[in-house]
Design brief:
This protein is an all-alpha fold. It is about 75% helix and about 0% strand.
């Protein structure tokens, strides 16, 4: 949640900062076009919004267990699709490998935890399924 929430800062940074980051990542100059800024800022805002929802859900995970599982499963699907997008883009291989690995590890771990008593000791759904 906190990592996604931190994306809110990118909504407000000037193009020059985005360009500097882009160049330091070895991706060359970032085009100074309206759609580039729009997409970068919109995606950052979307990540921050998802982070806010994840933070809210984290305060009562037993109550939101179904949502957490759905988030994990759809996150795994997003990982597959995002890896395909990365390969078509094409972004550097290190980008594709690190992004894909992170998404699969994070959402796979979240799904696994959502099905265990370890993460949800009070959940009736998890307890009844494991008996």
């Amino acid at each position: 949640a906190m990592l996604s929430l931190s994306a809110i800062g990118a909504v407000f940074i000037p193009h020059e900062w985005m360009n500097r980051i882009h160049e330091r990542m070895g991706l060359g100059p970032l085009p100074d076009l309206p759609m580039i800024g729009y997409l970068a800022r919109s995606l950052s805002l979307f990540y921050a919004w998802l982070g806010a929802i994840a933070l809210y859900v984290s305060f009562d995970p037993d109550r939101h267990l179904g949502l957490i599982r759905q988030f994990a499963l759809t996150g795994l699907a997003v990982g597959v699709i995002q890896t395909g997008i990365d390969l078509l883009a094409p972004v550097p291989l290190w980008w594709t490998a690190s992004e894909g690995a992170f998404l699969f590890a994070y959402f796979g771990g979240l799904f696994w935890l959502s099905r265990t008593k370890i993460a949800f000791p009070h959940s009736q759904t998890v307890q009844s399924r494991q008996q």
